[in-house]
User: What shape does this take?
Amino acid sequence: MKKTARFAAAAMVAMLALSGCGSDNGDGGSDGGGAAKSDVKVGMAYDVGGRGDQSFNDSAAAGLDKAKEEFGLDSQESEAEDGESESAREERLRTFADAGYNPIIAVGFAYSAAVGKVAAEYPDVNFAIIDDSANEKVANVASLVFAEEQGSFLVGAAAALKSKSGEVGFVGGVETPLIQKFQAGYEAGAKAVNPSIKVDVTYLTQAPDFSGFGDPAKGKTAAEGMFDGGADIVYHAAGGSGAGVFEAAKAANKLAIGVDSDQYNTADPSVKDVILTSMLKNVDVAVYNYLQKVVDGDVPTGITSYDLKVDGVGYSTSGGKVDDIKSKLDDYKQQIIDGKITVPTAP
Assistant: This one.
């Protein structure tokens, strides 16, 4: 984007922030309702799917909303589009910086290169990125990362304990090292329970095509193939595409496992009865904790890790379908915390 266009975009962001001031509808700027007004202005750059994906982005949004309510922050939000270029992600971050937003939070590893480049251009602006540690040595960048493999181990164990066919599935949104952590943990957990279990694996797209995180139709087709082939439980790590996995499970009268948020509570009510559990990845906690420190004047940098020891990941019990195996899952959880089980991070 040309310089003049960038300034125009920045002006638009500023105008939107001002127009949203005093509201608390989750769509833009807010004075946090009754909270004391803070002078912190947060720019939130979502991954594909944005607010409303019922999963990863929504978890980040929940953390932002809580911080706005408690600290009276002003904020503005923007989201990535399917198939957008690296320069588009960079420009989204620059637009926030030019409009005076500080800190700027990038939701998802797809922003890794953009954050590294733009943070160097704006050394006085603080950046945070979720799910990426490539910029851990950059002075004005905080990397908020998770032990996805540990939470995935627990839902993999749940799948194996509940499977009647001895075959389960995994649908990944985009094949990247991060999503392979989900796969690796899920497979390890399932095989810890049943060494002979079959785990079907499908990825919807290959990087740098990140549309696999926002294509429910592809998610549905992938899960249908697994159910037709004999799997009776499918775990998705596919963002908004997971809605299609739930639809396929409903149609096949089988079960599915959600991700990031407790999707029994966030997915369409018509499919909640097929959700066995969800791998909880507390992005909301990471975002809230980061903003709390910013407000306190103690801006984090470097890597902050969220694992089972700090309840950064886990599994949900909503719906009651894992109540009868909870003690077994919690035993696996403790073994991981104690170091008796080391969960792999790659398939």
In short: Confidence is low (pLDDT under 50) at residues 1-34. The domain at 3-146+283-308 is CATH 3.40.50.2300 (Rossmann fold).
